[in-house]
Amino acid sequence: MTGGPEPMSAADRTAIERELADLRRERDDVAATLKGGGGDETGDRADQADELMRGTEADRLERRIKELEARLEEAAVAGPPAEDTVGVGSTVTVRFDDGTEATVHIGEVAEMYDPDIVTADSPLGSELIGRRAGDTVTYRAPDGPRSAFVVSLGEQGGGPAAAS
């Protein structure tokens, strides 16, 4: 991405807020199973190892929560995505080197149920960032180098993003 505060689309904000809610619930569930600092030290090594694993998991969840909270704050500072260049939150219609077109959304969070999301850090997504309609990008796909022509930004027609 650009290195500065990155804007965020409403769909990405919703996805991150949903992930945050899930992580907070999971953190609370894990925290409820921890004994705490000054408790009874009875139990065997397996109990102690299990407690240590739950503590490590609680730490991991807390780090991810802080990361997502910081990203939401950054997006608020950055303001809305630009309309004339591709950025996180943009909807882009591209024509691939085989002639097929697809309309994709440049997002931060890949969602299993939405094949039209291309993450900004994917090979295609990272090449599209900062581009304008009329630009051609080259990116590395699993089957080798490919190219895509940026047809337009904004809601347009197009097929599935299977080629991404």
Count of all domains: 2
The H-and-E topology, N to C, reads as HHEEEHEE
State the share of residues found in helices, binned by percent: 25-40%
Any idea what the radius of gyration is? 21 Å
**Main sheet: which strands, in order across?**
3-2-1-5-4
| Shape designation | elongated
| Main β-sheet description | 5 strands, mixed
Return the structural class. Answer: alpha+beta
Beta-strand proportion = 15-25%
Give me the count of strands.
Answer: 5
Q: Indicate the mean pLDDT.
A: 80
C-alpha end-to-end distance = 18 Å
**Stretches with pLDDT under 50, minimum 5 residues:** 156-164
Total helices: the number is: 3
Question: What does the model show?
Answer:
The chain has 164 residues and is an alpha+beta fold. It has two domains: 10-78; 91-153, Transcription elongation factor, GreA/GreB, C-terminal domain (Chitinase A, domain 3), CATH 3.10.50. It contains three helices and five strands. A hairpin with a 4-residue loop joins β1 (91-96) and β2 (101-107). The radius of gyration is 21 Å and the shape is elongated. Mean pLDDT is 80; it is low at 156-164.
